[in-house]
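Input/output pair, single chain:
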Amino acid sequence: MTTSKHTVSGFDTDLDSLKDNIVRMGEVVQTAFAESINALLSGDADAATFAIAHDETADELERRVEEGAVQTIARRQPLAVDLRDIMAAVRIASDLERIGDLAKNIAKRALALGDERPQQDLASRIEKMATLTRQQLGRVLTAYADRNAELAIAIRDEDGEIDLLHTAFFKESIDTIARSHSDVAGITHLLFCAKNIERIGDHVTNISENVYFIVTGSMPQQDRIKLDTSSTIKSPPGTP
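Output:
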């Protein structure tokens, strides 16, 4: 999508600043998410600390986006596509901030696990789920930067894959606890981490819908696909 320049050059500067802060915020939370997963799977305390520290940067960038949006609306009184761009930027910043919070929570749980490493089968499931979610996060940020509605809607429709992986992880975790009756605390931390990853996927979907809105002026017509059925899984007999 191409955009024309405004008569008042300061308007373009304001919009570019909003976009730059969103892109920068995306880079920050991508790094935090990657490092939090690294910490969870490898036990790298430095990676966990690094991820936690990045949350403050994400919070500051969200504040800049919010303030920039308010100031731009007050000064420029934007209409149509420009107003969509500004309002969507605020919503996208909010989703990115929540992704940063969720990455921070994963990092904190990695620290709580200490030197204890996840069982290999569970670790593999977490890694697969996190890898897919990270890829989708990177792609949706590209869709935002390029104003690519087709890519945005494709990412939105892929969220069901993360839901299925989360459901499978949840079931495997419950079965593992039922079989061994051990490491309940460690697996519980992993369950929360998996849920955080699934929620990051939901925020990626929110961002994709807002990118679509920026470009087209409307939200996607079809309801998003939700395939996470973990809430319906019952504990096997004998589960502590």
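The first helix runs from residue 9 to 42. The mean pLDDT is 90.
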